[in-house]
Design goal:
Chain lengths: 334, 365
């Protein structure tokens, strides 16, 4: 079985072959230069620029892999900022001994995900470290996108009365990875929700360009980490209705068994949106019109009460605080 | 979720709440109940049950968090054991972060001691089997629920000739602690919500002393909202009608005589003796230590560690929380100096601790 060798990162013949035959071919890069030349609509004047690193274990999980995650994560960070994602970079840190077949599968997955999301991977880098100095494969992606004119979605725009929407079921990614990793002794049909959200979000923004006040992809810390940040930044209270939160039965069951709260579990293909009260219906319809938003729901609202705090109205009608999560529920899930 | 949602049904909960409300209104006076078990405290706060109950019905949490009631001195002993060369100290995750006067087990690990987190005593036994050159000490923390599996691990070590497996038992018994709280008279209690998992082992009959000796009713509860409301409903009925007894509101798990197999395993391995509880002091016949024929497994008898009697952290009021004398938010450190990220006392560390539950599931004011 072919493996990654230290020489693959040396800048010599093997490195050149890896770049030309694998990366450039998969990402459709015609000419190999030290920097990529990119074009965009300069009349828009504003760019969004972001980066993230991916160290998930295991590399392959139900519903995705580290490559798909690395593309979706950066595309989604741009999209929730209100930008239209255009170009990505991809930096690889490979552990000596990684099978080349694994690397090829990851790269093919990145290429397919980028194509589906309508973005291009235009530049990259490869480093190989000694066996034991990394866990198989780490990826960094950076991305640029263009921002539309006008005000952008930010937590500062959230107002009392705004409705809080989620684009679908919560906790799918975190629980899918956990069930895979912990070697649970029962069958799990859970799959990660890892998906690029730019098309879904473009549809939402087209339907209510002014009504969308804030967006976030609730990854680590789940819905509640996002809402706590919003409540603190915007100086509003946020109330969540337990009965309106979309959850898969399998996620509920797995969380129940492991003593976790799905509202704190990571998502990789969901967006949380704060929408002006009068635009909530239109926004919900726009989300539900996209295949990734079929299970979208209004789950709560911003209030003048208890500024800075997120509360839950339980199924039995009681109210309690949803605190910012302490520490990680599960490390290395993205 | 099958087998769970049935016990969370809002309509059934509302019916029970209405009956409790009616009886409490008719009674007029305050009814004060204590849930012994930390698992109940968490469930009650998570589902917001306190807010739904009538104003003259008060629930307070008790000493039912094994990590929390482990004395400061026993924690120092554990840290001293962990520092012995060649020792691996294995214990449950919650114990790692409990602050002691010379740091926590986590601090001891950072300083070079080999402390491992395990999910059961059998994991610690497997560790001993894999590393015969090391001395594996399991720090056994827990009530009657945990003790049988620890006893089983000791018996398995005996049967398998695994000579490098030792136990530091700080296991404790729940009925003597309940007795101690009632004897002290510091808090007035009208009824006890009996711990569901403990009672699965010891049997509902083990609580007969409550109505007999103290005139206090006991209802054993499971951990879903309807389980707890049923137990509260039955306690309220017994209080209002003045007929204290023991009621089993967790029939799908608890039998009158308990789990005989588990009791037998405990009996073969442990002998009952006095134990020191955080907040309650030394209680006679409330702890489990290894029988004399298993002395060669007893970490405290094999490894002579001497530690000075340790005090609780300054300002920490975990002791009063564990006795039900104060509610966690009444402690000046609660949510200020003491949070789950920077705990001062054990009740803020443990998954079963009352302070952690109040912090996590607090009510917006």
């Amino acid at each position: 079985m072919k493996q990654v060798l230290i020489a693959h990162g040396s800048g010599g013949q093997l490195a050149h072959e890896l770049i030309a035959n694998l990366f450039a071919r998969a990402f459709d890069i015609a000419e190999l230069n030290d920097a990529a030349e990119v074009t965009f609509d300069t009349s828009l004047r504003r760019l969004a620029f972001t980066t993230d690193s991916y160290v998930i274990s295991p590399l392959f999980f139900p519903g995705g892999d580290i490559g798909r995650l690395a593309v979706c994560g950066t595309v989604n960070d741009l999209a929730v900022s209100g930008a239209r994602p255009l170009y990505l970079s991809a930096g690889f840190i490979l552990e000596e001994g990684l099978s080349l077949e694994t690397l090829e599968r990851v790269v093919a997955s990145m290429a397919a995900t980028a194509r589906a999301a309508g973005v291009r991977i235009v530049t990259g880098d490869t480093k190989v470290v000694n066996r034991g100095a990394a866990d198989g494969l780490f990826i960094n992606t950076a991305g640029v996108g263009v921002l539309p004119p006008g005000s952008l979605p930010t937590p500062g725009r959230i107002r009392p009365g705004d409705r809080i929407l989620v684009s679908g079921t919560l906790g799918d990614h975190g629980m899918a990875v956990m069930m895979q990793r912990e070697g649970m002794a029962f069958d799990s049909s859970l799959t990660s929700d890892c998906a690029p959200l730019n098309e879904l979000i473009a549809g939402l923004l087209a339907a209510c360009p002014e009504g969308v006040h804030c967006m976030r992809d609730p990854t680590r810390g789940g819905l509640i980490a996002t809402l706590n940040e919003w409540a603190a930044t915007a100086g509003v209270g946020i109330e969540v209705e337990e009965t309106s939160i979309p959850l898969r039965e399998e996620v509920r069951g797995a969380c129940e068994m492991l003593g976790l709260d799905p509202l704190y579990v990571a998502n990789e293909g969901k967006v949380v949106v704060a929408v002006a009260q009068e635009a909530a219906g239109v926004a919900l319809a726009a989300l539900r019109a996209h295949p990734l938003g079929r299970a979208a729901a209004i789950v709560g609202r911003a209030t003048v009460d208890h500024p800075g705090l997120v509360t839950l109205r339980t199924e039995l009608g009681a109210q309690r605080v949803l605190q910012m999560p302490v520490g990680e529920q599960l490390p290395r899930i993205c | 979720m099958k087998y769970v949602d049935e016990f969370r049904d809002p309509a059934a909960a509302r019916r029970l709440l209405a009956r409790i409300e009616r009886r409490c209104a008719q009674y007029g006076k305050e009814i004060r109940l204590m849930e012994f078990c930390g698992g109940h405290t968490h469930a009650i706060l998570k589902f917001g049950l306190r807010q739904l109950l009538p104003a003259n019905l008060r629930l307070s949490s008790g000493p039912g968090c094994p990590v929390c009631v482990t004395s400061a001195t026993d924690l120092e002993r554990a840290i001293a054991l962990a520092r012995i060369p060649d020792v691996i100290l294995a214990t449950f995750g919650d114990m790692m972060r409990v602050p002691g006067s010379s740091g926590s087990l986590q601090d001891a690990r950072a300083a070079g001691a080999d402390v491992r987190v395990v999910y059961s005593a059998l994991d610690a036994l497997a560790l001993a089997r894999r590393a015969p050159e090391r001395l594996v000490i399991f720090l056994g923390v827990g009530f009657e629920t945990t003790a049988p599996t620890v006893a089983a691990a000791v018996l398995r070590a005996e049967a398998g000739g695994i000579d490098n497996f030792y136990l530091f038992s700080v296991h404790k018994l729940t009925p003597p602690a309940t007795r101690a709280i009632l004897d002290a008279g510091e808090v007035h209690l009208d009824g006890i919500i009996g711990p569901g998992h403990v009672t699965t082992i010891i049997g509902a009959d083990a609580w007969q002393f409550l109505p007999r000796d103290y005139g206090v009713p006991c209802a054993v509860a499971g951990f879903e909202p309807l389980d707890i409301l049923r137990a509260v409903d039955e306690l309220v009925a017994m209080v209002v009608e003045g007929r204290p007894g023991v009621s089993n509101a967790y029939g799908r798990s608890v039998r009158a005589g308990g789990n005989r197999v588990a009791q037998d395993v405990m009996e073969r391995v442990f002998v009952v003796g006095e134990a020191e509880w955080r907040g309650l002091g030394v209680i006679p016949d409330s702890g489990l230590r290894l029988r004399d024929h298993l002395a060669h497994r007893d970490a405290l008898r094999i490894f002579a560690v001497t530690v000075a009697p340790a005090a609780d952290p300054p300002g920490c009021r975990c002791g009063e929380v564990l006795r039900g004398a104060i509610e966690p938010p009444a402690c000046p450190l609660f949510g200020r100096g003491c949070t789950p990220r920077t705990p001062v006392g054990p009740c803020m560390v443990s998954g079963e601790g009352a302070c952690a539950a109040h912090y996590r599931y607090g009510v917006a004011t």
